[in-house]
Structures
1.
Amino acid sequence: MESDWKKAETIFKKIEQGWIITLVPLDATVQAKVNSWMEWRNFLNEINQKPKSTLGAFQKKAKALTLKSQELNNNIPTEFNTLSIKTRITALITKVKTLDLYIHLNPVPDKKVTGLIAEINDQVVSLQLQMENIVQRNQIPTEEGESDIIKMKDTTRAIH
């Protein structure tokens, strides 16, 4: 019994040390566009609060992150409602669900859990970079007549 407690304590300490979330600040233009996206703000708020006391607190956090990440598909701002953003959200959800799964195993595979934290960080950064990329692309002015050429190239509009 004593060794089970020590193992759990060791696992908790390793997860606590590895639970490092590093979010990159968004560009001011992107930030202004996502301010109204409540689900994104809720997810960031949840992910920024690190559990402190027990392994159970980390398990609750993983469950909460799963719910918040799944909500990211709701109310996506029009500019970001693209396949590239939705794909990154899906990848993020998958990583968070995997974290939730692993942290509830007995014994908890601490190396897997801390590895997933790093992967979740990467997914969030990837999503943020894609948002910035979209904003930058949309700021490039179109050439005169460019929109007509784009319409002509659209094969779904072609008359058959």
2.
Amino acid sequence: MSAARDYPPPPDVIRGRVAWVFGDDFDIDLVIGVENIKSYDADFLRGKVMRAYDPGFADRVQPGDVIVGGRNFGYGHPHYPPMVALRDLGIAAVIAESFSPGFWRGETYNGVPLITVPGIATAVTTGDAIALDWRAATVDLGDGRVLHGTPPSARVVRVIEAGGSLKLLLAEHART
């Protein structure tokens, strides 16, 4: 396993497109295929990411895009390579109806904005332009509709702003 990637914190408002909409109980390992969950090689994962769903996905994603999920997004074992692959492509956040607790803990630790927004999975389709204010947990759908979710706690905001829990802890302890 290689060293953790260094992803910058997201802007206050993430403006991008919906790169993909997943259904309920989606196992995050399926993004790259279970057989590839031990790889952190960016080039290798780029060739595997979303191949089972959309072979052109990796070429279509742009920095600032988001993925959307239904209920219990990230179900299964919380392996990091699927989100590493998505973040390497530019995925800036995940918006879902709800998250699997293990996935939420692991990816929040890594500084990924995971925002719970009821109704998101049926309100958007792949390719829709959106603006996500991740601190306020609001999604502007660009057509006059704004969905409201559950804002992250103050501690989670600090974790995301720092680029992950480890960076935040190191910064906090460097001050003592």
3.
Amino acid sequence: MSAGEEPGPAVVVELRGRGIVPGVVEAEALVTHDAISGFGGIDVATGTVIEPRHELFGVCFTGKVLVFPGAKGSSGWSGYFQSTRLMGTGPAAMVFNVLTTKAVLGAIVTRVPTVVEATPDPLEVIRTGDLVRVDGDTGIVTVLRRVSDAAATTP
């Protein structure tokens, strides 16, 4: 590091998986342990989860690293997430565990860096509010900064 150069963020934890959509993004994480539905589950105009019994009901995922187990519902899931890209309301990146054709196609048409099947389990390691770097080129997800414990318990 040369004089006057700022150090990069410290790595808190690194997860290794498989990149399926290339690109690198740093953004705040939004974590859910519930699978996400496209049709009837998200409002594409606002990037908000609208499924009434979902743990993220009323929460906006626009510009966030969406960390979730996978997709549920019909094959139209990908079309709804593509619509979020077209409307500028999509997530900044995706990290998920369960590979289905709808989730993978959704990531591809949303065109955001995506890592799948990471270890350790992202749902156990990443918390909502953490600053995360998703590298879809290498399949590495890095937690750069932890949200404070107090902020992690506040919705």
4.
Amino acid sequence: MIVNSKARQWKPNATVAAIIERDGRFLMIEEETPDGLRLNQPAGHLERGETLLQAVARETREESGWLFTPRGLTGIYLADAQDGDITYMRFAFHGDAVPSGSPQRLDEGIVAVHWLAYEDIAAQTARLRSPVVLQCLADYRNGIAYPLQLISDLR
């Protein structure tokens, strides 16, 4: 078999997301996307040199202004983008958050930060960034929780 050495190897995009519940409401961000305003958990891409836990804390701070402490892993989700050209591998963490204590400039495109009840989020499925958003919340509500010791950073 001849292998094309110039062929690009397929790799999923590693992303992280924070599930934060307080008083029966979940921290959600509203953001501008190419498809219009969408709701999502604080989430984003893993950057070179950081751990998954560092990435989810950074993304939460950058997108919501809240300081996130992961307590467990809710799940790992593999999903294709709607156009099917990109695959995302989302590591969804649940944990606690506190306000940063100082005004934060949020990432470009973040329009608002909301605390929403699950029912309110589920009623807006057309506005969710991806179906994975609601699946993460449903899994969290069903008690799915893996210890953080499941993750090892061997670098």
